[in-house]
Design a protein that fits this description.
- The protein has 282 residues and is an alpha+beta fold.
- The chain is 20% helix and 36% strand.
- The strands form two sheets. An eight-stranded mixed β-sheet has the order 2-3-4-1-5-8-7-6. Strands 10-11-12-9-13-16-15-14 form an eight-stranded mixed β-sheet.
Length: 282
């Protein structure tokens, strides 16, 4: 990967109703941060679900702005679901320069922040610098960007990393693509990474201990997840999020009666997880 990237950072789950989404994920045994509101020029609000080295972001559009126009288009096209994947960057400016050297037209990093209430009740700030790959570069309808955390100590708070379902990190994002090989190669080239064939799809790793991307045909995805209905899936797009749990029984208890439990996994239908097929594995 690009030298300034350190692996998968977080997944953005865009929601049509932010507070309803928070209620759904709370019911699945996750601890959520208090609701945050981003800078006015971003126009969004969020809840975060902090894991080990990565996290999930439930995102809602609060005010239409130029910067969230693509998100509004996604909601119109797909409804709630996985809209974006973010990579950790240790230097947003260097990342932009490296991508420009590869011939990509990249905008300068965007700076923004949101207020945070710390465990002791004091007010602090979470501050970020992000850059997006070009809008026309979205492998299988998945936009990608990179995020530099200037205040990790206000984001990865220990009490927010404890979950009743015992989730500890992102294992993979499963993405439906008509041509998994070509789409995986597209993503790999955008991050200066590699696409590798797997048993039933193409894999793009990000870093040791960080989540990977798996590109599958719709048929291969359904073979992996026989409980999922064909009619509920898009022709392309990131549709499933697979998380690691320390205790599969705890995940099953937290997921409740709507989950499909097998010897090696717990699967929550998309209708109970903001349009995301959520899978726990140990």
């Amino acid at each position: 990967m690009l030298k300034s990237l350190e692996g998968l950072d977080h997944i953005v789950i865009l929601t049509q109703d932010l507070d309803l989404a928070a209620a759904q994920w709370l019911a699945l045994g996750f601890t959520l941060s208090p609701r945050g509101t981003h800078s006015a020029h971003i126009g969004t609000g969020n809840y975060t679900i902090m894991l080990g080295n990565d996290y999930l972001e439930l995102l809602g559009v609060l005010q239409a702005t130029d910067l969230n126009t693509p998100s509004l288009a996604f909601l119109e096209r797909r409804g709630s679901g996985i809209e974006r994947a973010a990579f950790t960057t240790n230097n947003a400016a260097a990342g932009v320069a490296a991508l420009r050297d590869l011939g990509l037209e990249i905008q300068d990093p965007v700076e923004f922040s949101r207020p945070v209430t710390m465990p002791d009740g004091k007010s602090s700030v979470a501050a970020f610098s992000v850059f997006h790959w070009p809008a026309n570069q979205h492998p299988a309808d998945l936009r990608i960007f990179a995020c530099q955390h200037h205040t990790r100590d206000t984001v990865w708070l220990p009490h927010l990393q404890q979950h009743a379902n015992m989730a500890t990190g992102i294992l993979r994002i499963e993405i439906i693509a008509p041509d998994p090989g070509a789409t995986a190669l597209q993503l790999a080239q955008l991050i200066d990474g590699q696409a590798q064939p797997g048993k039933d799809g193409m894999h793009v790793a990000t870093a040791a201990g960080r989540g990977e991307f798996v590109f599958l045909t719709k048929a291969a995805f359904l073979a992996r997840h026989p409980s999922v209905s064909h009619d509920t899936l898009p022709n392309e797009g990131a549709v499933a999020l697979v998380l690691k749990t320390q205790d599969l029984n705890a995940a099953a208890r937290a997921a409740g009666g709507n989950a499909v439990v097998t010897a090696g996994s717990v699967t929550v239908p998309a209708g109970h997880a903001s349009g995301v097929i959520l899978v726990f594995e140990q």
